[in-house]
Amino acid sequence: MRFSKFIVLFVSIAVLLVLNLLLGTVRIPVGEILTILMGGDAAEIPTNIVLQSRLPQALTAIAAGAGLAVSGLQMQTVFRNPLAGPSVLGISNGAALGVAFVVLLSGQLGGVALSRLGYLGDAAMSVAAVVGALAVLMLILWVSQRVKGNVTLLIIGVMIGYLANAIIGVLKFLSPEEDVKAFVVWGLGSFSRVSGNEMLLFVALMAILLPLACLLVKPMNLLLLGDRYASNLGLNIRRSRMLVIISSGILVAIVTAYCGPIMFIGLAVPHLARALFRTSDHRVLMPATMFCGAALALLCNLIARMPGFEGALPVNSVTALVGAPVIATVLFRRRKDDVSE
After folding, report:
1. Cβ proximity of 164 and 136 under 8 Å
2. Does the pLDDT value for residue 208 go beyond 90?
């Protein structure tokens, strides 16, 4: 039964990937897309659209969706909190703070807005996002060595997020309008920023990090039993919690650096995977969450680029509009089943 559900998820990802290549403001026939993908002769404009825009966006969405979903699952497991997500410890806010320092201060200190520097500006924002996210992650790990309760660590992470947002607010108030606009656009999230060699590097990083996250399946299953019971079974609670937080934080840092802060996927997809597979076993949930995250991200990217829209809608708006009703339906159905039992 579970195997058939995995097959359905895999087929869904394949279908959504094909639709992402087919649909857009410019109509390209299926045969021409196949010719382009197989390296045959095709017109220049369709080739550029497929290879430089649609295919990189689709692959980026798959990698980002899977990474954020796994990160959310890890956070919900560590804190045993269904509302925990990738941004719960302020790591996404740290990435935003790093970008804010680079974008909002560049015009004042350097005299040239970072948004005018093209590829160099995009690279600087990516580096700043990674540095900011990893800095907050290191701070969280330092704090985790000095506090025992998960709730305390969770509250400290939320406070770090509020502090980062406060600093960003001050920087936005002091910065020129052009820099503020560039920062706001980055904060909307997008799968279209990654292309060419950047896309290959991003996908390669996620292809390494996601299997490494799967190595934490056993300690995550033990953490669900409670700290005392897991400790009696020989699990080092503090070390396991730190490893899971490191894994989740690095996934969030990489995705945020390349795509901006993508909301909702990390929070909602683990619930969707649990509802579909009706299990808490992370040996099943981990791959299920990856597939569900990749499929939902592809669906949101497809809606954001649907014909009729000039340009593309913000991904964060689409993720909430698509995912919230789905997750609400799943949770209400689960509640109804619990009452009936």
Report:
1. yes
2. yes
